Amino acid sequence: MIKTEIAAARFADLESWSGSELIEGIIEGQFAAIAAVHAVRPLLSEAVEKATQRLEAGGRLIYLGAGTSGRIATQDAAELPPTFNWPYARAISLMAGGNGAFIEAVEGAEDSETAAPQALDHHGVGPNDVVIGLAASGRTPFTIAGLAHARKKGALTIGIHNNPGGQVGAVSEIDILLDTGAEILAGSTRMKAGTAQKAALNCISTGVMIALGYVYKGLMVEMRPTNEKLRIRAAEIVAAITGAKPEVAQTVLVQTDYSIKLAAIMIVQGLDLAAAESVLAQAGGNLRIAMDGRA
C-alpha cells in the first residue's frame, strides 16, 4: 500500500469544509512535512558529509526525478549557480521526459528503465559524482534505474522518497525516507511529500555548500550580482564583513568585477587586486582561510 495515495477517512468530506478549515488542514500538512524531515536528521548529516567529500574531489551534483519530484529537484539544482557561484556544469538535473517535462507532463516517461542510465552515461557519471534521486512513491522506474546505474558506476547515491519500502531507497547508498503519510488530496504529492522533499534538498545542498567554504559568516559571498538589486546586496555584504561604508564597498567591488570575496580581502588587508587574488588562490578560494591568514 502506498501511503501517499491513501484516501484518508479524515478528509472524506473535504469539499464541505469551510475556507478556514481547508487552510488549517493544508497548513497542518506542511508542519507534518517538516516533522518528517526533522526525523531523518542523521541521514541528512551523513548525506552532507559524504557528498562534500565527493564534490571536493571535483564531482558533480546530479539530480534524478519525474513529475513533481523532478521539478523540485530541478529547482534545487538551478538555484546553486546564482546563490553559490557553483558551476552550471556541476549541477545537473535529469528529468523523465526531458527538458520539456519541466513545464508540461510527459505521460509514461517515468516508466522508462533505460532513459536515466543513458542520460547518466551521456554525462559520464563516475565515482566523484553525487546522484540524488527523488520519487514520492519510491517506485518510479526512471529514478530507480538511474540510481542503480549510478551506484554501479561508483557514484554516491542518495534516494529520497515518501513511502516505506520504496525501491528508490533500496538501490541507494543513503536511503532517506520522508514518511509524510496520506495527503489532504489523496495522491497529490506536490503537497506534503513535495514540501518534505524540498526541505530535505535544502538541507543537503546548502549544507554541502557551507562545508565546501562557499559561505562566510552566514553570508552568500559567492553570490553572482547579475542585476542592480544584487549589486546593492553585494555592497551590503562587503560592508558587513569589513566594516567599510557601503559606498567604499561599492567602489572596490567595481574593481573586482563584483567579486565579494576579493573586495573583502582588499579592504581588510589593504591589498590591491592582484595581491588579493593571490591570497584567495592560496586559500583555495575559501574566504575564511584567506581572512584568517592561514592560507
TrEMBL record:
N-terminal signal peptide: none
SIS domain residues: 51-214
One family name in Pfam for this protein: GKRP_SIS_N
SUPFAM superfamilies with a match to the protein in the record: SIS domain (SSF53697)
Coiled-coil ranges (or none): none
GO BP annotation list: amino sugar catabolic process; peptidoglycan turnover
Listed GO MF terms: carbohydrate derivative binding; carbon-oxygen lyase activity; ether hydrolase activity
Keyword Iron: no
UniProt entry tagged with the keyword Lyase: yes
Keywords, sorted A to Z: Carbohydrate metabolism, Lyase, Membrane, Transmembrane, Transmembrane helix
Residue ranges of the TM segments: 199-216
PANTHER family noted in UniProt: GLUCOKINASE REGULATORY PROTEIN
Protein name from the UniProt record: N-acetylmuramic acid 6-phosphate etherase
Higher taxonomy: Bacteria, Pseudomonadati, Pseudomonadota, Alphaproteobacteria, Hyphomicrobiales
